[in-house]
Amino acid sequence: MDKKRNYQNELEKIIDSIEGEPPSLLLHACCAPCSSYCLEYLCKYFRVTVYYYNPNISLGEEYRKRVAEEKRLIAAYNSEIIWGERQGHPIGIREGNYDPSRFYEAIKGLEKLGEGSERCFKCYELRLEQTAKAVGDGYDYFSTTLTISPLKNAEKLNEIGESLAEKYGLKWLPSDFKKKEGYKRSIELSQKYDLYRQDYCGCGYSKAERSREKAARGELPI
Questions:
Q1: pTM of the predicted model, to two decimals?
Q2: Which member of 52, 79, 98, 214 has the greatest number of CB atoms within 10 A?
Q3: Nearest-CA neighbor of 11 among 142, 186, 183, 173?
Q4: CATH of 7-216, one of 3.40.50.620, 1.10.3380.30, 3.30.1120.10, 3.30.565.10
Q5: Any idea which of 40-49, 74-83, 134-143, 207-216 has the lowest mean pLDDT?
Q6: Strand partners, 29
Q7: Where on the phi/psi map is residue 37: left (φ > 0), alpha (ψ -120 to 50), or beta?
Q8: Is residue 210 pLDDT above 90, yes or no?
């Protein structure tokens, strides 16, 4: 049986090999809380540009709230970097096109599957492929903050990322940001910056599933 890969160790080996100017990284981000630790960690070694592309977020109001929090967090980090309160390189942000129909098209026929299923994998692929297409010639690597979530399949995310890197002739930056207390640190940073935290990924299916779980626990009416 093949030994399970440690993607976070692979990331650290890449970081250890960096010499001279910091490489550039286009980092897909899902939300500010998940970005918090990833950016704190990566901006020390890379020139990071966040790519905010999340057509899976069902409601426009929710999307706007999340992207505003992402921008607020980046602005706070950059201010701290400028004033020497935080170690790292300034962080940029690009916003992709918000078109939920792309998500519904990608997961067609998989709507009834639960969280963590093939439906989610198709969503990963949609967002990561759009990130890969946005790389062009301007970045040395691309990656995602999604691996920080305990609810996301880091192995599948890295598998998809590597496949897209091969398809488009790019470099994928492996990660499993939840390792080494990364997820715990993201909670601390979310509290520090009073970030808006949500308990579902963004799609309506995830929101409905979370509501059913809460109802089963008696936290809200069915």
A1: 0.94
A2: 52
A3: 173
A4: 3.40.50.620
A5: 207-216
A6: 52
A7: alpha
A8: no
